[in-house]
Queue: 2 jobs
Job 1
Amino acid sequence: MALSDDIDRILISEDDLQARVAELGNEISALYSDEDCPLLVSVLKGSFIFLADLTRHIDVRHEVDFMVTSSYGAATESSGVVRILLDLESSVEGRHVMIVEDIVDTGYTLEYITRNMRTRGPASLRVCTLLSKPTRREVDVQLDIIGFEVPDEFVVGYGLDYAEHYRNLRFVGVLKQQVYARS
Ligand code: IMP
């Protein structure tokens, strides 16, 4: 069975994603035009495809680094408990840092990461997220750049997974109910 057979509907098409990511790249280039080599911190695994596209639309010198936080596992609800499983290679002290997230849902993950980053003394700290689910927010987090707002539904594709699958889809979509019943 094809992977796309599991999709109920597409929320954001490949064309819309590509066009918006190009816009975000321009915004980030303008934001950092006077800063010395900002550091983009990608929160894995969900943001790997977004970051790969975004970085190629940024027209100022910058570096990328990666961090892995604990995920939901096979569940679709946040436990609210966040852990860093793999930390950055780079030092953040005195750097202009932008956290790159796939999606901000309850906000717990981002709140934890921003609090942690602030203790490392960055020159500035901003957040860029591809997707935001504002109606699900449980903690107040500052988002500087948002690609798309999405409704309160579990979404997959363009880096986002369900039980580690569907990250490779070129669009963002919603799974059929029977997929959850199957696992
Ligand atoms: P939060 O801590 O509830 O804001 O959740 C953040 C993390 O949960 C994201 O970085 C994703 O890895 C995951 N997540 C939240 N909502 C979704 C979704 O709709 N699809 C896939 N992953 C999600």
Job 2
Amino acid sequence: MKNVIILSFGELWLKGENREHFIRQLLGNTKKAIEEFNATIKRTDGSVLVCGYNPDDEQDILRNLSLVFGYSKIVKAIEVDADEKKILDAVVKQLADISKPITFKVQTKRTDKTFPKTSPELNGIVGHKVLTTYSHFTVEIHNPELVVGVSIKQNKKAYISFGEEEAACGLPVGVSGAGLSLLSGGIDSPVASHQMAKRGLEIVYINFESFPYTSLQAKQKVLDLAKILKPATLSKILIYCNIKEIQETLNKNTDKKYAVVLTRVLMARICDEIVRNPKLLEERISNKKLLPKNKLSMLITGESLGQVASQTIENLTVVNNAIETIFIRPLIARDKEEIIKIAKKIGTFETSIKPYEDSCTVFAPQHPITKAKQKDVDLELARIDAETLIKNALSTLEIVEI
Ligand code: ATP
Ligand code: MG
């Protein structure tokens, strides 16, 4: 008898031709998620088995695996030979600790069709054994307190489990390309990054800081957020870009009402350079393994329509118009309350609400323009040397490993 964890594939079963590629990616991601532990990962029919680990690590391994995108169910199980007597002995032994009256049912799944009993027959045999061994157990088919799972797999092993949990679902990170995610220290952008990783996107983060106007703690907070997200997103790098000169120049030379939208335009143009010119990152990273496997092809932000004055369709349009690279805004239709709920669930909320100033609040006007017109933005941009400012900002790029 040995302890194993079984992970069932999710949505990727639907993906016909890509299936093998997706599964390979998923197995690689699974390995990464628990690389700090000693464990064996094996593929079986319709699922992945994790075994051979130190029982003391089981809870930590379970937690990490529950965050890997691409699995629909996760369950702790006992592995025995697919032999009727061994199955019955294992079930009886596992239930010995339950002393209070309880309702149960047995649910057998059999992918090994050569096993001599059908699933309904095995349900009956196991159920009968439980009832005759423990008088405080009662069968309840529709709404049992305990589901005894028996899964007979093609490797001639049986897996006995007690209740399965929903896993992270989504698609394996890496199968949908890569994106540059604008990560502030706020509540929204970590959630936006998480949502896109859930759709299989490999995420590289960029944070715009304004040191010394903003603190080193503010920079650290962003790295902390990236670290919290790491078991799910598997992201490896965070890029810092200093925009102090941009903000000072805008503050001095342009209409203050436009500060936010102009900063966003310049941030977008910096990101666009990074996406279109992979050398910018390659030249700055000595460990090439940290570079994204896929080509960066989109920008991700945590904007939500109308959440703050800067997030109107007019302002978002002006920022979109500044570059050709596509913007993905996964939270655009979400209420703040919904976003907070997800932030709490994924563990970023408590860090996000720490009170360190974001670069965007430096020089922020009291009444920012809410419906910026392209021609007015262009007039403001004409007052600064955007090319040089962008070039200078790109020379400050600092890449850190998460
Ligand atoms: P968040 O909670 O993500 O900070 P927010 O509601 O505070 O969002 P804004 O400050 O208007 O909204 O920022 C909108 C989006 O722009 C953010 O979600 C983020 O993607 C990006 N952004 C803002 N400031 C920065 C920054 N300093 N570095 C990187 N991205 C940023
Ligand atoms: Mg913010």
